[in-house]
């Protein structure tokens, strides 16, 4: 094959083409390479379902997952609320109280992240906290999916953390000052942890935030602990929501803590 050039003409084998055509082909080839690499990124990413995608924590989780090249299914009862636009983002309508909807949405995903809150009905029982009902619903659905089921990352509550040996933050709360709904949610998160602790046929991780969530920046610097509340040098248990999202997507990618409760804080 002859490859050479003369003034404005380039020879490729017996083919004679102009420099302008060569430049066009080079640009076309470069575009094809860029598209191919974006496709490869999308293909390599995890398929992550986020329940609570419209929430204060969930919006950070969706953003963090997208920035790391994952494919995100953001679930809301009113998906029109999800205004973010991204080629790897789908906003879908879903309700955690509807088993058929949950099964349709999570089937085929790699990871399901649940970051929701609320109290269902007028009951005063912790069993009516959505955080607990969501854990029960997902375990039921994922159990039925068998070995192909996605992993479950449950966003937990700091009430479950020990602030003194053997004493949880929830046990120390001045309940008389708490709105009843919040107390039910805190107790619901304790129930969810107890419930998940007994589940051995679904791959779950209960990711516990610290007592104080902040709107601070993403630093990607934090510690991972267990049942005891992590305190910073000034005795505070805190973390930005953006950094909590980093910890969640780290766990989505690494699956480092199967069937465990972890906690995250500075
Ligand atoms: N220090 C702490 O321990 C601490 C502090 C704050 C939060 N948290 C935990 O963090 C998690 C998220 O809290 P957040 O502050 O981000 O809550 P949030 O802003 O109030 O958002 C709640 C989310 O729940 C979703 N949701 C409610 N009912 C639903 C249903 N039936 N089906 C599906 N989704 C439903 C809502 O989605 P749609 O309305 O769009 O459907 C919304 O996105 C909770 O688990 C909470 O307990 C812990």
Q: Could you outline the blueprint of secondary structure elements for this entry?
A:
Elements: E1 3-6, E2 9-12, E3 15-18, H1 19-44, E4 47-51, H2 58-67, E5 71-76, E6 89-93, H3 99-106, E7 111-114, H4 130-145, E8 151-155, E9 162-164, E10 167-168, H5 169-172, H6 180-197, E11 204-208, E12 212-214, E13 223-225, E14 238-240, H7 241-254, E15 260-265
Parallel strand pairs: 4-5, 4-7, 5-6, 7-8, 8-11, 11-15, 12-14
Antiparallel strand pairs: 1-2, 2-3, 9-10, 13-15
Bound molecules: NADP nicotinamide-adenine-dinucleotide phosphate.
The site of NADP nicotinamide-adenine-dinucleotide phosphate has 28 residues, from helix 4 and helix 6.
How is the main sheet built?
Answer: 8 strands, mixed
Order of helices and strands: EEEHEHEEHEHEEEHHEEEEHE
Poorly predicted parts: 1-13, 18-42
List how many beta strands DSSP finds.
Answer: 15
The first-level CATH class of the largest domain is given as Alpha Beta
What is the general shape?
A: globular
CATH architecture of the largest domain: 3-Layer(aba) Sandwich
Structural class: alpha/beta
How large is the share of residues in beta strands? Answer: 15-25%
Separation, N- and C-terminal Cα atoms = 63 Å
Summed over residues and divided by their number, the pLDDT gives a mean of: 88
Distinct small molecules: NADP nicotinamide-adenine-dinucleotide phosphate
Instruction: Give the helix proportion (percent range).
Output: 25-40%
């Amino acid at each position: 094959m002859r490859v050479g050039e003369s003034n404005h003409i380039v020879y490729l084998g017996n083919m004679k083409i102009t420099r302008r055509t060569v430049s066009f082909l080079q640009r076309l080839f470069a575009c094809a390479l860029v598209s191919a690499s974006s496709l490869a990124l999308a293909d390599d990413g995890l398929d992550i379902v986020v329940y609570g995608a419209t929430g204060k924590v969930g919006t950070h989780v969706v953003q963090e997952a997208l920035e790391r090249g994952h494919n995100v299914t953001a679930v809301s009862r009113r998906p029109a609320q999800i205004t973010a636009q991204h080629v790897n983002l789908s906003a879908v309508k879903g309700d955690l109280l509807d088993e058929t909807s949950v099964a349709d949405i999570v089937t085929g995903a790699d990871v399901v992240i649940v970051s929701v809150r609320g109290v269902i009905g007028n009951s005063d029982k912790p069993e009516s906290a959505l955080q607990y009902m969501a854990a029960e619903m997902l375990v039921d659905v994922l159990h039925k999916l068998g070995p192909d089921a996605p992993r479950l990352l449950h966003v937990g509550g700091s009430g479950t953390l020990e602030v003194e040996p053997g004493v949880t933050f929830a046990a120390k709360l001045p309940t008389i000052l708490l709105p009843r709904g919040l107390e039910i949610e805190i107790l619901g998160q304790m129930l969810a942890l107890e419930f998940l602790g007994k589940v051995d046929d679904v791959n779950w991780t209960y990711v516990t935030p610290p007592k104080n969530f902040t709107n601070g920046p993403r630093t990607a610097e934090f510690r991972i602990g267990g049942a005891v509340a992590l305190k910073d040098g000034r005795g505070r248990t805190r973390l930005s929501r953006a950094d909590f999202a980093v910890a969640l997507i780290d766990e989505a990618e690494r699956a480092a803590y199967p069937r465990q409760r972890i906690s995250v804080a500075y």
